[in-house]
Write a structure and sequence with these properties.
This protein is about 35% helix and about 15% strand. The protein is an alpha+beta fold. The site of one magnesium ion has 7 residues, from β20. The structure holds a DNA/RNA duplex.
DNA sequence: TTTTCGCTGCCCGCCT
RNA sequence: AGGCGGGCAG
């Protein structure tokens, strides 16, 4: 038996199953011998490394933490230049322009009358014949019918007040015409200085003097909530201290938790169906017992019974139904404050969604703001010499020439309103023929005119920039809007819009100049939000093979402050559950029973369309700001959307806040259109615990199933979720009236779990702060894409510093060119695909029983970028040819670059926040807020490097990434050499760390060595810092990136031992719980430091005991479950035969379940004595199948 | 009218 | 040696 094979047997029992050539009993006996030998020889002699290396023992391992922190001086953010560099004199010819403008206005109006914009009124100044807040009759009918239905169907407890609602609506129907008119009049005054037609007065006026970023902002400070607080408290002592995330693992507890039964196959929870969790109550039933016909629902019923549930209907007297009266929202000066949370782009206008305060009731309600006349901004780079007929001439170009050409282009495009003027800009990106600084001609024109071609060149200009900039980007850069914040809106028009949205208040402004972001100094807290957590249950319609909705549960939390840290079970909530029967009717007596038992609103429907309509009505009533779920993206939400579309449900656009009548054309595609789906919900934030953003907040998870999340993050109290196989449930225990009540209870419990998790991991506060740092949109941050956040923070930063910014890559023609593409990029991509990264030392494998220090650079890559001033603006990459990955020179004598300065600011702010957290008098709420802030700053700084090497980033700069990793390798090597020069043994190192054998026997000496080395290293660098990450009492180094160690943690002045494991098989989800359990037990013994002989005996006994249990089937089946992700669709696997996951997936697929790309498959390898010669793939089954007693399936050993 | 998703290093398995 | 899977590590 090979050395590696033996060691893996020792580490885990997986091979037992996988290699299953032998019967369990014979196997066990054999294996036990082998294991014993190994342990005896190496582990227990406590010999030193050399000795171990001679032996066959193959223990070694290591790893590091990637996360970091950095320290740097507090850097004030660079001011936005206040020099009025460009005179704003209009160059357009006035008479002609205004004539053109009138034509344009006409076509504009015509356009707006079509399509979606038929909800907009036609002209702002025409006095509105009717009062503002109006619902269409159709709307009233729609809602009225549905809500009436609610009233007849509600449970006894759910009190409702239809009459009051009616009065409010009536009241809203009679707005003050007078003031609406006076407001319009005021607007006219604004534009009276020019000769534009009154209807569009604002255009010219603002066009000329207006939204020009070269005019100093009235509010130059970005909205950065922490900054002020940081400055106030700047004196607080700064202590560099880091407790960065590492995954220390408490082996002793592994048995309890790791066993959580999870099944990720398919979109629906597909799980076993056992009574009490066998891991928590080992005495429970045999793993192979028959499928229960009933389920013990007490677990989840207990959970929900403890919640703070309020009546299903909120008090209606203070609630606003229908539209609100704008007069209740405006300030004394007539302006409106709105906190924006989301946006959508419609026909050349930007539409913001958000909340405003109703000053009368004190409530916050949804608001829709349409911003018109945001202007495109295009920069033209003049040529040196004029081109004629495609050939360069000797005639020099001056600005007037460029102006003429651009103006003629505008004329050709029939763009009446435009402004052209020269300006100066810097450039630091990848186009080589663009000067670092130069004169440009800047063109402004409206977004309702088409974009110029991205690669447009002319006789007088060689490049155009900014042709395809999105409206949103244009807006946030111009107005310096950094994520969700309060906006002050002046001269808002409350009469322009009429039911363009589903918001309570609708506002239009004629120009973005009327909008100003409020800063921290205005000390306005973000408004509280309305959250709705969703849990759906679906069934497969066999006929057309589509998932249809069976039940939707929603739990509503109102008035949730982002900084509130109250656990979810204490927050008042109410539920709405909508369900239809699986067949034609509910079980007998179910209707009465559910009314008696339910604490929330339960609506019983006959068919799916009814569910959909009722759900929309509830959405309209609740008007949630955020919808929270588990696997919404691509699963629940996608199904919901597709059902709404299939069923042609009226009022479907209430899923979001933008009113739509027609489905987008791009929705037709199969597989779901991610972008189109997203745009439909705009106005409400989609918060998915299981998308990339959600996963990144729950790093301890391996499968990210809802059950696993609850186990790992809601462990306190009675928060255990039970997995339920939906299909099995519907066929068995949920077919009775009591069973169906429990089924609903499970669904409602899930809505609690989902909301509780989102609150616990602070997903909303974190994503909001990340968005505030980056200046993108909250909804995009919630999708979890880092690249876009990084892109926006750089866009803002370079824009403020007057740089031309790289344009978004024009979409690449993909469909054609198969062969050519392959050849062209094949050679190219092969080389270019990857560049060199981190350095990993060959480990000195073995067991160490002297103290070992882990010395780790804090935020290595961000620190390198600062230390060496690595930036687009500083590193000369013109000389290096595009062939190889030649490492560029480190810049010398350059001013601090934009990127290093940005990182320094982030790191400095983080240090300030962390110092605030040391304040003993801080409340838990403050601490939570600061912790989120601190984390967001770290994440933002750390994501910079990755995006430099991201091919599709607008700021892709491979040489900068190459230089950064190069310096990293250089630093790590020289750090190792420094250690060795001091006679310290470096046993391992990975990217940013060295592991040093301190060769001492007590903590104090170990720290002494560590501190000395730390000082020696840090003396060599300006900013770069190494620190003691861990002190290991003992370590077993098995291989690169694999080790187990006893880590010493200081707790209340004393040192506590804690097992830390990296990379070993027990950290992988492809290993079953039993294997992990055994592994941790063995590692615990090996690293216990106890007498060798004793340990050997204990291990021996333990293994004997385990194998005995295995033989007698005393081990719960779940402990054999293995998890594997399907990286592609099951059918796309070329050699599916040999892959157990794929076999299992295909079998599930064949039986009508949904298995898609990226699902995590759970399976158990089974085998009796006879089939042992078949490949493991054939013998793999889902846990649910194995559980069925009559399957005769047993776990293979 | 779109086509997403930070980087590299290292090890396991299967198939050419 | 390459490709494809798998998913740890930083
Ligand atoms: Mg590290
Ligand atoms: Mg580090």
């Amino acid at each position: 038996m090979s050395k590696s094979a033996r060691s893996s047997k020792l580490a885990e029992l997986r091979a037992l199953r996988e290699s299953g050539k032998k019967r369990l009993d014979t196997y066990e006996v054999h294996q036990e011998e082998d294991l014993y030998e190994e342990v005896d020889e190496d582990g227990y002699k406590k010999v030193i490394r050399e000795r171990l290396n001679q032996d066959d023992f193959v223990i070694d391992d290591n790893g590091e933490g990637y996360a970091d922190d950095g320290r740097e001086d507090w850097d004030r953010r660079q001011g936005y230049d206040s020099e009025s560099e460009e005179d704003a004199r209009p160059k357009g010819k006035n008479g002609k322009a205004s004539k053109r403008k009138r034509e344009e206005d006409k076509t504009k109006r015509e356009n707006m009358d079509k399509g979606i914009n038929n909800y907009f009124t036609k002209g702002p100044v025409v006095a509105q014949p009717k009062a503002k807040p109006v619902q269409t009759q159709a709307d009233n009918d729609f809602m009225g019918d549905l809500l009436a239905e609610v009233d007849t169907n509600v449970l006894p407890r759910a009190s409702r007040h239809p009459p009051k609602q009616l009065t409010r609506r009536t009241r809203a129907l009679s707005p003050a015409i007078q003031s609406a008119e006076s407001l319009s009049a005021k607007r006219v005054k604004l534009g009276d200085a020019n000769d534009a037609p009154p209807a569009y007065d604002d255009d010219d006026g603002n066009f000329i003097g207006g939204m020009d970023d070269d005019v100093p902002m009235s509010d130059p400070a970005p909205s950065s909530p922490v900054q002020k607080a940081v400055e106030r408290k700047a004196q607080v002592a700064i202590k560099a201290e880091e407790e960065d995330d590492y995954d220390a693992m408490e082996v002793a507890q592994a048995d309890g938790i790791a066993a959580a039964s999870v099944n990720m196959s398919g979109s629906r929870p597909v799980l076993k169906l056992i009574k009490p969790d066998p891991y928590l109550t080992p005495a429970s039933s045999s793993p192979t017992r028959p499928l229960p016909e009933e389920v013990d629902a007490s677990a989840w019923n207990n959970v929900t019974s403890r919640l703070n549930v309020i009546s299903s209907s909120p008090p209606t007297d203070t609630r606003t139904y229908g539209k609100m009266d704008y007069k209740d929202a405006i300030e004394a000066d007539g302006s409106l404050n709105m906190f924006w949370t989301d946006y959508t782009e419609v026909h050349g206008s930007l539409c913001l969604f958000g909340k405003v305060k109703n000053k009368k009731t004190g409530e916050y309600v949804s608001c829709f703001l349409k911003v018109d006349n945001i202007l495109r901004k295009v920069f033209f780079l003049p040529r040196d010499n004029m081109y004629k007929h495609g050939r360069e001439t000797s005639e020099e170009v001056d600005m007037e020439d460029v102006y003429k050409e651009v103006d003629s282009i505008m004329t050709r495009m029939k763009v009446g309103m435009h402004k052209i003027k020269p300006c100066s800009r810097k450039y630091a990106f990848e186009l080589e023929d663009v000067p670092k600084e130069g004169e440009y001609l800047k063109l402004l024109y409206p977004y309702n005119k088409p974009a110029l071609p991205i690669d447009l060149t002319g006789d007088t200009f060689s490049h155009t920039f900014g042709t395809n900039t999105s409206i949103f980007e244009q807006f946030v850069l111009w107005k310096n809007v950094m994520g969700p914040c309060w906006l002050k809106i002046e001269d808002a028009d409350f009469t322009f819009l009429n039911n363009a949205s589903h918001c309570k208040l609708e506002v239009q402004v004629a120009t973005p100049n009327l909008i100003t972001p409020l800063t921290e100094s205005d000390s306005m807290e973000p408004p509280p939000l309305t959250l709705m957590s969703l849990a759906m249950r679906t069934t497969l319609n066999a006929k057309d093979n589509k998932q249809e909705i069976l039940a939707i549960s929603a739990r509503i939390y109102e008035n949730i402050s982002l900084s509130d840290t109250t656990p979810a079970e204490q927050i008042p909530s109410r539920t709405i559950t909508i369900i239809r029967p699986v067949g034609s009717s509910f079980p007998l007596g179910f209707e009465d029973l559910i009314k008696k038992k339910s604490r929330g609103l339960v609506k019983l429907c006959r068919q799916e369309p009814e569910i959909l309509s009722f759900f929309l009505a509830q959405l309209d009533r609740v008007d949630p700001d955020v919808i929270i779920g588990h696997q919404l993206e691509g699963v629940d939400y996608s199904i919901l959307i597709s059902r709404l579309q299939t069923r042609k449900t009226p009022g479907w656009s209430r899923i979001g806040r933008f009113r739509r009548s027609d489905w987008p054309g791009s929705m037709g595609k199969i597989g779901g259109n991610f972008f189109a789906e997203r745009s439909l919900i705009s106005g409400r934030l989609l918060c998915d615990l299981a998308n990339d953003a959600g996963k990144s907040t729950m790093t301890k998870c391996q499968s990210w199933s809802l059950t696993e999340m609850c186990n790992l993050y809601l462990s306190s109290g009675n928060n255990v979720r039970r997995d339920v196989d939906n299909e099995v449930a519907l066929k068995t225990w949920a077919t009775t009236k009591d069973g169906l009540v429990d089924y609903i209870g499970h669904c409602e419990a899930d809505t609690y779990f989902i909301a509780a998790l989102a609150l616990k991991v602070q997903m909303l506060p974190l994503t909001k702060v990340l968005t505030n740092l980056a200046g993108n949109s909250w909804a995009r941050t919630l999708t979890g894409t880092r690249a876009e956040r990084n892109e926006y923070i750089l866009l803002h930063e370079f824009h403020r510093n007057k740089y031309i910014v790289p344009d978004k890559a024009p979409f690449k023609g993909r469909p054609k060119m198969e062969q050519q593409d392959q050849e062209e990029e094949g050679g190219d991509a092969k080389k270019k695909d990857k560049y060199k990264g981190g350095l990993v030392f060959e480990p000195e494998k073995g067991l160490y029983d002297k103290f070992v220090l882990v010395m780790d650079f804090n935020s290595l890559y961000p620190s390198i970028i600062q230390e060496y001033n690595i930036c687009f603006t500083t590193v000369d990459r013109t000389t290096l040819s595009d062939d190889e990955d030649k490492v560029p020179e480190v810049p010398t004598d350059q001013d601090q670059g934009i990127l290093p300065k940005l990182i320094a600011t982030l790191v400095g702010r983080r240090r300030q926040v962390k110092s605030l957290m040391k304040d003993k008098s801080a409340t838990s709420e403050q601490l939570a807020t600061w912790d989120i802030k601190q984390l967001a700053l770290k994440l933002t700084a750390n994501s910079m490097y990755g995006c430099l090497g991201y091919t599709k980033s607008r700021f892709y700069a491979r040489p900068l990434a190459v230089l950064t990793t190069y310096k990293g390798r250089e630093i790590l090597r020289s750090t190792k050499e420094l250690a060795e020069s001091k006679s310290l043994q470096v046993i391992y190192g990975d990217t940013d760390s060295v592991m040093i054998n301190a060769n001492v026997d007590n903590v104090a000496d170990a720290f002494k060595v560590g501190h000395e080395f730390k000082r020696a290293v840090n003396d060599r660098y300006r900013l770069l810092e190494i620190d003691i990450d861990n002190v290991f009492r003992r370590i077993l180094l098995q291989a690169k990136k694999k080790y187990a160690a006893i880590n010493l943690l200081e707790v209340d002045g004393k040192f506590v031992e804690k097992m830390e494991v990296k990379g070993l098989d027990m950290k992988r989800r492809e290993y079953c719980a039993l294997s992990k359990e055994v592994s941790s037990k063995l590692l615990n013994e090996i690293l216990s430091g106890d007498e060798t002989e004793v340990v050997i005996t204990r291990i021996h006994d333990y293994l004997r005991e385990i194998s005995g249990k295995m033989r007698e089937d005393l081990i719960p089946m779940q402990k054999y479950t293995i998890y594997t992700k399907l990286g592609k669709n099951p059918k796309d696997y070329p050699n599916a035969d040999t892959m157990p996951q794929v076999q299992v997936a295909l079998r599930e697929l064949a039986r009508g379940k949904t298995v898609r790309k990226d699902d995590v498959i759970a399976y158990i390898v089974t085998g009796d004595g006879k089939s042992a010669n078949e490949p493991a793939a054939k013998r793999s089954h889902t846990p649910a199948d194995v559980m069925k007693a009559d399957s005769g399936l047993k776990a293979d050993a």
